[in-house]
Every structure is written in structure tokens, then in C-alpha cells.
Amino acid sequence: MRLAFCLYKYFPYGGLQRDFVRIAEECASRGHQVTAYTLSWTGDCPDWLNLVVAPIKAVGGARTSGPNRYRKFSAWLAQQLKQCPADAVVGFNKMPGLDVYYCADPCFEHKSRHLRPWWYRYTPRYRHFSSYEQAIFNPGQSTEILMISSVQQGLFQKYYGTEASRMTMLPPGISRSRCATDNADEVRAEFRREFGLGDGDELLLQVGSGFRTKGLDRSLRALASLPASLKSHTRLFVIGQDDPAEFKSLAGRLGVTDQVTFFSGRDDVPRFLQGADLLVHPAYAENTGTVLLEAVVAGLPVLVTDVCGYAGYVAKAEAGKVLTSPFSQEKFNVQLAEMLMADKQKWRENGLLFSREADIYDMPIRAAEVIERVLEKQQ
Fold first, then answer.
1. How many C-beta neighbours within 10 Å does residue 186 have?
2. Which end of the chain is least crowded, N or C, by CB within 10 Å?
């Protein structure tokens, strides 16, 4: 069967983008022909995937022309699918005309009401994204929705009354390559030698594109707040596809520039998970937070805010600490210091045990099963 997979932007290191590829690959392995339609594609394209990039250029820069580009993309996609029909259209961003939607983004209506000024809901930008969300979640729509956050499912149903029968909750789908290997101790030792980390040094790790949303400012402030004796041998590595200028400036004002190292997205994140002492993820908002589970199964303790969809797994595994809302910088600072000074071995052991027992690897399989059910209905 012919499947159209739709995504606004692909780059190799985004969580949504990794899910896109893994679900598409699972569908291809089942004999389906998968074509990706996108506005931009960065990186290699697998040989099993057909790629079509929309010939739509941004006007005034991608940051300011999002809604206009997305409208043009929707119109272009509709024309493409008339010329080359698909048996099912699977979207990874909210847009009209989808048979299946993979819901990696949080509820736009909720964010608009709680994280934006009152007048935002009178802007053209709000009207665009609201209408695209309604095209999927309004009652009576036919789109099957793949959910990955029970919190977000409740919010969509609160604002739209979306039928539960159209929503399928998927298990997490992290790659087993993130699990600690038999030579994890050797990997850790080599990593720490490479970056000049001694036995008494503490390494904080923060991973994720979108530094503002992930709360990198909170991490920098917490690092700066550590007692002098602890701060002097603590470093922070930040990995993500984003412009670090704003946060390098903040690190300078806080006096921690020499302790913070920025890396762009990279393929060897498992080495960093093995080499670090604590993952920090004080996000302002996070639908899931795949890196939280990746850290847990690698044996890396986690300090995370409870707004992250996967924070509950950290608590369930007893593999770190979850900060309750509303967020308090002071409480985060204190918790960070306490965790750095604590014996972390039990958190590590709990995470490794969780990695062997939990159902956290089969998301692409479950997603492909739903897509195939949709195909069967349309035959």
C-alpha cells in the first residue's frame, strides 16, 4: 500500500524526526511504499524512503513566515496527492487532510490560554494554528490520533471533546541502543578521559533542541547557585540543534562560562549518557521527553520537571527526582546540589532494572498496527 508521511521539517537529531523515521521504517519493513513529503530535509535519506521536498521558499525568514509556508505546503500537498494518490496520509505535524496524526506536539489551545497574553488569540498566527488543530481534534473528524502523552490526551479532550475511540495511546519507543552495554564502565572511563574529567568531577548533561523550552536558563542558574566547593568541580554539557548565543551570554553573566560546553546535535549521545553523572531537564513544557527514558535505561540519574510527559517513568523507575509544579528555581537549585552530593548508585541500578522490565521499546510497531487498521477500513 502507498503511504504519504508528512512532516514540515526533518533534521537528524530531533525527537519527532527520529520517531518519524522509525515508524516509516517499520511500515516499509511490512511491505508498504512510503513517501515523505516535507518543506525541508537535512541529512541523509534512507534508500527505502521516497523523498519529495516542497518547492516553497520562506519569505522574510523561516521564523516569521511559518503559518504562510504551512498553508502553502498544505495546498501543494493536496495537489501532489491528487496526482499521486496515497492509500493513507500520515502527518507528524497538525494539518488538514490527515488519515492518521502522530501527536508529538502539545495542545496548542492550552498553550495559547496559559502561556500567551490574552490578545494572542486575536492574531492571524493563532487563527492558523487553531484551525489546523481543530481539523484533527474537533468531534466528528475522521483522523485517527496516535497519542504519546496521557496528560496531553486529557487536554485535547478538555478543549475539543475529541472522541476517545479515535485516540490510541502508544508506549514509548526508545531505541535499545540507548541501554547500557556490557562494557559501559569502559565507555564511561574513555569518555571522561577524552574530556578531561577526573574522578571527583561531576558532569551535568542536558540534551534537546529548543534551549528555551527545555529550560536551559534554569540549568545555568542552578549551576551558578551551587556551593563554591561543589561548583568548582561541576561541568555542564549541552547538546542540541539551536543557537546557543543567548545562553552563552547568560552563562557569562552568571560567571560559569568556563564550566559550560555546547555541542550541536550528534550521533554519539549514548557515550554522553554513559559519561555523565546527572541528566538535567527542567523544561517549561514537554509533551514526552524521550531523552528522560534514554537516560534511565543508560543508568544515568535524572532531575526533571513534572510537566514532561515521561517524567512519570523517572518516578516509577525510582531513577532520579521529579520536581512538582509550580516550578521554583530555588527548589531546583537545592535539589540539584543534593543530588550531586548524594550516592547515585541506587538510581543507576534502578534505571538498569527498569530497562530490562518495562514496555518502552515498541512504539513504532504499535503505530504501524494502527496505520494498517486505517488502511483496512479504507479498502
1. 11
2. C
Largest alpha-carbon pair distance within the chain?
A: 68
Query: What are the cell numbers at 343?
Result: 550516592
- What's the CATH class of domain 2-171+362-378? alpha beta
Let me know if domain 176-357 sits in CATH 3.40.50.1820: no
Phi-psi domain of 320 (left: phi exceeds 0; alpha: psi -120 through 50; beta: other) = left
Non-local (6+) Cβ contacts of 257 within 8 A are 248, 251
Q: Is the pLDDT of residue 353 over 90?
A: yes
**Residues 6+ positions from 156 with CB-CB distance below 8 Å:** 103, 107, 137, 145, 162, 167
Per DSSP, helices labelled H in 35-163 are 66-83, 108-114, 124-137, 150-160
Distance CA 192, CA 294 (A): 19
Contacts of 101 (CB under 8 A, 6+ apart): 90, 91, 92, 94, 136, 143, 144, 145, 146
The reply to whether 2-171+362-378 and 176-357 are identical in fold is yes
Q: Would you state the pLDDT for residue 309?
A: 87
Domain residue spans of the chain: 2-171+362-378, 176-357
Whether residue 170 has pLDDT greater than 80 = yes
Residue 297 near residue 307 (C-beta atoms within 8 A): no
CA nearest to 237, candidates 287, 202, 267: 202
